[in-house]
Amino acid sequence: MNIILAVLIGVPLVYVVMSQTIIGTSMDFLFKTDVTTPAPKTTTQKAAESAAALKRAQDAKAEADQLQNQKDKAVAQRDANDTQLKAEETALKSAQDDLSKAKAKGGDTTAEEGKLNTQQQAYDKAKSSYDASNTEVTKANEKLEATPFKREEKINAYYKELIKANEAKGTELSQKKASTPEEQKIIDQQKSANGLYGELLKAKQAVETCQVTTTPCASIEDKKAAQIAAENKLREQISLLTYAEQTINKGMTFPVSEIFRPTGQAAKKLSLLDVTNKIANWMITLVTSLAVTALIIGGFIMIISGGDESRLEEGKTIFTYSLIGLAVTLMAYGIIATIRSLFI
Question: Contact, 19 vs 277, CB < 8 A?
């Protein structure tokens, strides 16, 4: 009996906790990454960090310039070899034509054959030189692309495209029209989430740019903390959006994944909150079914007790505890529904 009571009363309470918190947005706060505030740095430390970062940036730029110069020379040599190769190819074709004409006349072709053989060797040598210079260009380019300076360029180009797509998504949401107040709530939540996603992209760009050490970066710890804060804000906003969507399951639907990604990219997998909500809903359904079943069993025991006081008391106990469990379950669900309607 104690087990039945624990299940009927305990599980609804678990549902309240898992479904979403009463004072905030969701249980996601349990999974936020702790951000330890770094100790304030002295003016001397900050100046030393800035000087070191500037030196790294200058060294990286000098390295990139040197490798770029090597690549330019390799490209120039390859182009010269390519020109020579084309000239040898033309001469080889001419020698082949001369041999064909000599054979057609039926005369001695020794001279033409010798010329063709000499030209073939010249062509093969030019082809070998071109292939070697092309390999040098490839190697020089790989070295250049591996430098911090070039990596920073790639990072900025990558995030530029993501931010551009994020801004396009914001424009799309601004133009979206709602036919009901509920739909407008979702659109507003989407706009907010999309804006926070844009902030997160910029924070991540700052961290990754700082990590390649080509741009003076006084404190990467501060940038990492800003990124974590942006991630937490976005997570909370996505939770709010999820709940807003759940309040209107009919008509217009806006998947949460549409906000997490720029238009045209693949949707992301379910979040932790989505999973816990599914589990919580499954639990509430199970407990409600158990409570109703227990009510029926308790009533049946009382009916067939036949005046047996112990059996009658057992039936009453089961019936009472089942009724309490069902009431708590419904109350838990009602509290959550009320919070959603008031704050989302």
Answer: yes
